[in-house]
Amino acid sequence: MNGYGGKILRINLTTGQISKEPTPTHIAEKFLGGRGFGIYFLYTEVPRGADPLGPENKIIASPGPLSGTLAPGAGKMDFTTKSPLTGGYASASVGGHLTAELKYAGYDSIIIEGISPKPVYLYINDDEVELRDASDLWGKGSITVETELKKRLGEEFQIATIGPAGENLVKYACITHDFGRQAGRGGVGAVMGAKKLKAIAVHGTRDIPVADPQALLRLGTEAIKACKASEAFEVWVRYGTSGVTVWSNEVGAFPVRNFQAGALEDYSGLSGETMRQRIVITDKGCFGCPSPCGKYSYSKKYSIYVEGPEYETTALIGGDCVLTDIEDVAYANWLCDELGIDSISVGNVIAFAIECFEKGILTKEETEGLELRWGDPQVVFTLLEKIARREGIGDLLAEGVKHASQKLGENSEEFAIHVKGMEMSGYECHNAPAMLLSYMTCDVGAHHNRSWAITYDLQVGRDLVTDDKVDRVIYLQHVRPLFDCLGACRLQWVELSIDLGLYPPILKAITGIDRSWEDLMKISERVWNLTRMYWVREVEGFGREWDYPPPRFYKEPVTYGPTKGKRMEWDDIQRLLDTYYQKRGWDKNGIPTPEKLAELGLAEIVRIGV
Amino acid sequence: MAVYLHADSSKCSGCKACLVACSLAKFGVNNPKKARLAIIPKFPAPGIFEVKTCTNCGTCAEVCPVDAVKINEKGAYYIDPNECIACMACVKECPEQVIFTHPDYPVPFECDLCGACVEVCGPGVLWIE
Ligand code: SF4
Ligand code: SF4
Ligand code: SF4
Predict the structure, then answer these.
(1) Quick check: B120 contacting A, CB < 8 Å?
(2) Residues 6 or more apart from B128 whose CB is under 8 A from it?
(3) A372 Rama class: left (phi>0) / alpha (psi -120 to 50) / beta
(4) Which atom of ligand 1 sits closest to the CA of residue B93?
(5) Cα separations (Å) of A54 from A86, A148, A211, A377?
(6) Which of A138, A77, A107, A128 is nearest to A4 (CA)?
(7) Helix residue ranges, H only, A230-289
(8) Which residues are within 8 A (CB) of A10 and not within 5 positions of it... i.e. 6 or more apart?
(9) A281 secondary structure, DSSP code
(10) Closest ligand to B14 CA?
(11) What residue owns the CA closest to ligand 1's atom 8?
(12) H or E element: which one contains A172?
């Protein structure tokens, strides 16, 4: 099958059985790859009600048809699983070189099942697949393990690994790859930890079968040239996502003090400029990326090498916990990488804990004498370590803000910043209805990458609660996640504004199948609806209330920044949801209608997927 | 001075697009493991990508026992697969270690200055001069 590795690799950790199956053509047609494959296998193979940390849950790791080819940014791989953080659908994407390597080894998905009796790592060298003992790696940090495995196996091996947080089942533990890239969200690292799978090491030497190699060379080169010709190219490559920090502060979108404020008083220490001057040593791109957003840094203050910090980490650990020196954020970032923790979730968790401490909900006794304060790097570093090892207060915080607030009570649920149990990424949206709706309806919880609509709020007027905002959110929720099905990065389109029309011909050159952009959008909508049905299936009583934003956004006005005094109205939130459901063809409770499912060719899968 | 493929490693982001373009241009396949230049990441420290290209120094031609290394119209050395006896002397002696092999091919291969890599390099690491 052109564009695909051709095989699905199945690993049963309980029995040690390893098998290979041909990639089903009709699944490739219907779901493309990446997170499309992820939800298909999750829905059809993981039984209803499975314990996310039990043997029935699976991890499905999938590249897509563009992965590893000459398409711009062809380096994204998806990890899908049932989330231990939310109990619903989780899909975390990681850049770097893993996805390409897996395709060169000939695989379109690795499906990992069961639980190993002892720590192991998965070794893949083309056809040679083994589970190898990882007892000596257990307990070690992600960067340390990656370095060690490269030493043992060779530089050509691409490694994905978990750190102590994953081993200790921290609910938002991540998978780390390529010295600072993360499959960050939803606790995919905890699922690996529960399975006693320390790492995946892949090396492949095969060709990816391509329908028309000459056309791919020509069209791929053309698309890359379009990236280079973009007006935004130079600035984007210089700063990467750190270029967003100053903008975010200036428009009041920067989360500060657990999303109480929308800007920092002085953010100069966190700006992209400062970062570039003080710590960045090189640009670091994912596979096939002409516009590398990765900034690789060295902090003199802490003597550490770290990729980043990228915007999200700067927002949640910098802004939200009020660390204002980029080197402090860089060190916290390094700790997150080494310990294997999602920096977005943990930034929220720490900010939440500080606010609880401030309000007397958490006491010095509970924190073992640690005084939780805004702006204290030691507090952040100490809590990171405690969370990763589930020591003292870290044990509660390792559960995420939803669970922690339910346990702590005293109205702390009002300022637990999450949707569906997933902590919010770095855009303050008391006064950005489209962005808030993006968070509310995102398929994994309060995550920004499916729809980044805040620029639309700014463009058309942020106070407005209008239908076109809902349209925009839905449009973005189809385009952006589509890239995660294709196995490529969306940022060449988002940041460099290259023409979306460049992609279908490239995909055709690779797969030989002619698809219009509309055809692709339909696939994305199919995936979106199936992920929604996964929530419906797994979470009892799932519906409208699961889409509600944290009360802070409609109950408390912003305390500082250009949007000071603003908040959302409850009626507007309800109106946004009504319109959204109606436009999506869902009922008033946010459940896809049978007609919608039939239209998308999902009726059968939903019926048999128990 | 011979014309050759230059590289400014300090600008390289390690994306390997050059390797894919090379394999497509020279072998008509999508496979960076069949490229004629090398990107060597040095991580976690010191955090650089070392780009290895053929400098057209001619060592390969000198050591080849059967004169299978020839010069093309661009002035680049290349291995004529019809004459090569796969003794691997050139692979061993290349000071840049940029004569490559792959199990799919009986004979080694090296850069012939086609320039496909230059076109796809985002940060402008590569040039022929
Ligand atoms: S391949 Fe190596 S030996 Fe031959 S010319 Fe190039 S650098 Fe010199
Ligand atoms: S491998 Fe071929 S080209 Fe290289 S030295 Fe031997 S005969 Fe000459
Ligand atoms: S295309 Fe350029 S930036 Fe990418 S690996 Fe090759 S030389 Fe480095």
Answers:
(1) yes
(2) B3, B4, B5, B6, B113, B115, B118
(3) beta
(4) 3
(5) 15, 29, 41, 36
(6) A107
(7) 233-239, 244-250, 272-278
(8) A17, A18, A19, A20, A21, A110, A111, A113
(9) E
(10) 3
(11) B57
(12) none
For chain A, give the mean pLDDT: 97
Residue whose structure tokens are 């999508």: B30
Beta strands in chain B, from DSSP E residues, in sequence order: 5-7, 38-42, 48-52, 69-71, 77-79, 126-128
Span A253-285, pLDDT tens digits: 999 999 999 999 999 999 999 999 999 999 999
Task: Output b/e per residue, A293-330; b: 16+ Cβ within 10 A.
Answer: bbbbbbbeebebbbbbbbbbbbbbbbbbbbbbbbbbbb
Put simply, whether B52 touches A (Cβ < 8 Å) is no
Give the residue from A150, A177, A164 showing the smallest Cα distance to A76.
A177
Residue B2 pLDDT exceeds 90: no
Residue range A386-401: average pLDDT? 98
**H or E stretch covering A254:** none
- Pocket lining: B37 vs ligand 3, CB cutoff 6 Å: no
Q: pLDDT tens across A150-194, in order? A: 999 999 999 999 999 999 999 999 999 999 999 999 999 999 999
Strand partners, B128: B5
Residues facing B100 on adjacent strands: B109
In a mutagenesis test of the A interface, which of B22, B24, B30 is the best target, namely the one with the most A β-carbons within 10 Å? B30
Nearest-angstrom CA–CA distance, A337 and A121: 19
Give the pTM.
0.96
Contact A326, A275 (CB under 8 A): yes
Residue B89 Cβ < 6 Å to ligand 1: no
Please give the Cα distance from A32 to A75 (Å, whole number): 16
Q: Which of B25, B41, B116 sits opposite A155 (nearest CB)?
A: B41
Helical (H) or strand (E) element with A431 = none
3-state class of B109 per DSSP? strand
**Residue A447 CA from chain centroid, whole number:** 7
Nearest CB among A213, A228, A305 relative to B29 is that of: A213
Nearest residue to A430 (alpha-carbon basis) of A569, A606, A607, A598: A569
Q: How far is CA A489 from the centre of its chain?
A: 12
Q: Of the residues B92, B107, B110, which should be mutated to test ligand 2's pocket, given the most ligand atoms within 8 Å of the CB?
A: B107
pLDDT bin (cut points 50, 70, 90) of residue B1 is: low
> Does A213 sit within 8 Å of B28, measured CB to CB?
yes
Cβ of B98 less than 6 Å from ligand 1: yes
Amino acid (one-letter) located at A466: T
Percent of chain A predicted with pLDDT > 70? 100
Pull the structure tokens for residue A285: 């791109």
Report residue B126: phi and psi, to 5°.
Answer: -110, 145
